[in-house]
Amino acid sequence: MYKELIRFFGRFGSRHLKSYFLPLREEILKSNLNMLFELYVGKMILAAFITFAIISIGLPILMLYLGFPFFIAIISGVITAVTFSFIILTLFHSYPFQLQTIKRNSIENNMPFAINHMGAISASGIPPFTIFKLLSNVPEYGEIRNEAQRIVRNMETFGMDITAAVKNVAERTPSRDFRQFLIGVVSTIQTGGDLKKFLENAAKDALFDYRLKREKYLQTLSTYADFYTAVLIAAPLFFVSILSVMSLVGGEIMGMSIPMAMSIGIYLLIPAMNTIFLMFIHFTQVKI
Questions:
Q1: Host domain of residue 46
Q2: What's the pLDDT tens digit per position in 113-158?
């Protein structure tokens, strides 16, 4: 029954709501969710439908039990159900994009080291398939390891040749830089070029880009440091000093006494602002 509902909603969404769901098709392929497009759409719509049914029925019953008027209970139930259903759809819709971002960051941060490793391996004259197979056994390379595993799988399981296997992965990788690198590998193999030299040049270019990103991030951090000094160190000190002087003459701030305002600022506002700033730094930092 559950699988039948998923298939029903999947067919319904892919046929009648194309403008909303069709952009997901390519994103699901690139994010490597290992799930068919219609099944993902079916799960999305079914989850939103179940959420709507539970809230639209349960919330009015609860509100009527608590003594709310019938009309307010019904309207509140419908509005809340629509809101949470929309949130469920948004989360499902954005998940492949978020997954792609995580994978793209992992690939681009590990590219200089992985390509340099490939160049060192190719110096011994071993074939490209063996290079990717060795790369697929190094977990430190994150998503690049997974991409190499897909190339090896394409050749060993599906019987593709090296160029077809690499092209297939290049079409689905979320990183534009890595896609261009894989296409360069294919072109070098097809034209009989020097793969070792190509990998050495690609490693130098990737390392140069990596250093530029790190330097740019360090410059951004210096700007963040100035902001932190001005807003989260100097401003709170000024705030405490002003309130200390005001406490000597008495008075209130927004209906609160001066000691209470100082307590809220010191024990709640300042820690909250520092926590938000640390979270911002964490989520915007360049991963190594």
A1: 2-102
A2: 899 888 888 888 888 899 999 998 988 888 899 999 999 999 999 8
- Give the three-state DSSP class for 193: coil
94 and 121, same structural domain?
no
The domain boundary residue, chosen from 188, 209, 230: 209
Looking from the CA of 35 toward its CB, the CA atoms found within 13 Å total 17
In this structure, are 39 and 80 located in the same domain?
Answer: yes
Give the list of residues 6+ apart from residue 250 with CB closer than 8 angstroms, or none.
258
What is the pLDDT, as a whole number, of residue 20? 63
| Residues 41 and 82: beta-carbon distance below 8 Å | no
| Amino acid letter, 229 | T
Give Cα 230 distance to the centre of its chain.
31
Query: Tokens at residue 208, please?
Result: 């140069």
Tell me: do 118 and 185 sit in the same domain: yes
